[in-house]
Specification:
Elements: E1 9-15, H1 22-34, E2 39-44, H2 59-69, E3 75-78, H3 80-83, H4 89-99, E4 104-110, H5 123-129, E5 132-135, H6 143-146, H7 148-152, E6 174-177, H8 186-192
Parallel strand pairs: 1-2, 1-4, 2-3, 4-5, 5-6
Helix pairs in contact: 4-5
Enzyme class: transferase
Function: Catalyzes the reversible adenylation of nicotinate mononucleotide (NaMN) to nicotinic acid adenine dinucleotide (NaAD).
Protein name: Probable nicotinate-nucleotide adenylyltransferase
């Protein structure tokens, strides 16, 4: 895990990044600025239980590509989940919380993940562990209104204007952050390159 100090505000941005692209960098940049983060952990996962690993590039390759895209020195590209043999986000967040007392974390996700978020292992536990910042993505702006997580945790939604304070809030707390959007997607890039 990257080194952090007590009192820091740290964003957690996880994914398979297969491959990483400018859309991921844009989400990271928006999160750093709008949430006023001291650090953002770009967490390259060994695999996604909801996706086929058949077309997954090797972890070392995805880490290297992520490091090339993540230019801001506050972004720490890490793959500690592989070293700890962690498979599910709920377990990752529990591990981070246990190992970093006094650090204020916020989970960052693209709005395109909201549609299927209720299919994630122990998704309610994820929402109850750290505040969540949902960053707008093309075609997903309205998905947060109809998603299971938005309906279930409607009472915990925080106004976007309060995003800079989100990391210090007690979960459950979440906000939707509007901003510039990139139409890039890892799936489209793989298809264009002859992958799945």
């Amino acid at each position: 895990m990257p080194h952090v100090e007590k009192g820091m505000q740290v964003g957690l941005f996880g994914g398979s990044f297969n491959p990483p692209h400018g859309g991921h960098a844009l989400v990271a940049e928006i999160a750093l600025r709008r949430l006023r983060l001291d650090q953002l952990w770009w967490m390259v996962t060994p695999g996604n239980p909801l996706k086929s690993s058949r077309m997954q590039a090797p972890l070392a390759e995805r880490i290297g590509l992520s490091e090339k895209i993540a230019k801001d020195p506050r972004i720490k590209v890490t793959a500690f989940e592989a070293a700890h043999h962690v498979r599910y986000t709920a377990d990752t967040l529990a591990l981070i919380k246990a190992r970093n007392p006094g650090v204020d974390f916020v989970w960052i996700m693209g709005a395109d993940n909201l549609r299927d978020f209720h299919r994630w292992q122990r998704w309610r536990q994820i929402v109850m562990t750290f505040p969540i910042a949902v960053i707008d993505r093309p075609g997903a702006t309205l998905s947060f209104l109809s998603s299971a997580v938005a309906k279930t945790f409607d009472y915990a939604r925080v106004d976007e204007a309060d995003a800079p304070r989100l990391a210090r809030m007690k979960a459950p707390a979440w906000t939707f952050i509007h901003g510039p959007r990139s139409s890039l997607s890892s799936t489209a890039i793989r298809k264009a390159n002859g992958g799945g």
